[in-house]
Amino acid sequence: xxxxxxxxxxxxxxxxxxxxxxxxxxxxxxQAGHREQQxxxxxxxxxxxxxWLSSLAAMKTESGERPIVAIVGTxxxxxxxxxxxxNLQPLLTxxxxxxDIRGVYFLDxxxxxxxxxxxxxxxxAGLICxxxxxxxxxxxxxxxxxxxxxRNCIRSPFLSVSEFxxxxxxxAGVHPSHVGSLLxxxxxxxxxxxxx
Length: 196
Prior knowledge:
Order of helices and strands: EHHHEHEHHHH
Strand content: 5-15%
Shape: globular
Helix content: 40-55%
Number of helices: 8
Structural class: mainly alpha
Oligomer: single chain
Distance between the termini: 52 Å
Radius of gyration: 18 Å
């Protein structure tokens, strides 16, 4: 048996984002898993996520804090990320009082050395550092959307601040007054190397 200490762990809840949340997980995916997964009845992706989140929500921490969770949607190439995040909102709302969900991250893990995997490694390292430092400040979802757009959509190594501001507002709804904070966040995570 495995014992988790929710005071010392960051839990990753991983799901296949290519399968719509309300679709039943195909049997070939269940058969590829552990024996326990194979024994589970057919369930939708949403039910599968809910099962894992419910299990984590049932954990108690000595400090009384909620378990820290990051949700990872894999195989995200070709997935409408904005729609996928919107579809997750009811689950995030359902568990907001029992789990400290620090973020939702989508990546294409078909190539282990892909840019998305490297970006996710940096994101995860930052998340763990925040948890170790007992930082409770959450990263706004709009900052994560902006980070995704910069890492995956921008081909030029240079952008003016006004171009960046327009992009962040268009892609993630970042208000121009928050662009400075967004730039500092992206600089901290090595997405933006220099800005002034």
